[in-house]
Fold this sequence. Notes:
metal-binding; 6 strands; binds magnesium ion; alpha/beta; transferase; six-stranded parallel sheet; EC 2.5.1.-; globular; CATH 3.40.1180.10; UPP_synth-like_sf; binds 3-methylbut-3-enyl trihydrogen diphosphate; UPP_synth-like_CS; 252 residues
Amino acid sequence: MDTDARQHLMLDSQNPAQYGKLPRHIAIIMDGNGRWAQQRGLNRAEGHRAGVKALKPIVKECAAMGIEVLTVYAFSTENWSRPQVEVEALWDLLVEYLRSETAELKAEGVRIQTIGNVGALPIRAQKAIDAAMRETASETRMVLNLALNYGGRDELVRAVNRWLDEHRPLSPDSYMTANAIAAHLDTAGLPDPDLLIRSSGELRISNFLLWQLAYAEIYVTETLWPDFNPMELHKAIRAYQKRDRRFGGLRE
Length: 252
Ligand code: IPE
Ligand code: IPE
Ligand code: MG
């Protein structure tokens, strides 16, 4: 999106920053690329390309609004079960995205991080991720957290095993705590998501951030991910601002 369009958005009456508290951390399940492509008689890879394109203005808008962390579900541990050509196309798109966008993300103060078992990705993807993380390591405006080969159950298992490695040999009075689990998750150091957005209508979390979403507000839109835009983002945040977050307590 160009600067004029963005300025217009910031002035738009829907601009959530004018209304109330913004979520610190937004997590998005970017779903619906395949259906978007199918509706147009395109192949699924073209849907994913359109999905990557849709991400750019969302990242910009989140950074402009003052969101601290944006986590996007790009590839789940279950997505390996898709045809190999689709999986390969996704890694190609990731490499292309990181190569073409990192400089601009850096200029906007965005630090790129990942969650998920990145060590199992193809080497070309790992190299592109390392380079993008290194290049943006000193940025502090917003974290763009890419969930790659991510599964909530896999993350919990890896967290527990990491903890065990640190505590061997285990003494009889060693016990796990909630803080210890949180500190060994891939998201250690990040606040839990306040708002979970899922595009394209499915009412499930598909193994995303199982621990961290404990008290997230959930917003599902029928809009397919390639059609999701900053106006839709504003709508989601406005809906979030109207929620009554009780955390198990009573309403104020
Ligand atoms: C989400 O779009 C992107 C990934 C899972 C990588 P889908 O590819 O799941 O799109 P649908 O759900 O088939 O429409
Ligand atoms: C969730 O979408 C994963 C990503 C968006 C990366 P899926 O399309 O894989 O989820 P299901 O299969 O509909 O649950
Ligand atoms: Mg899907």
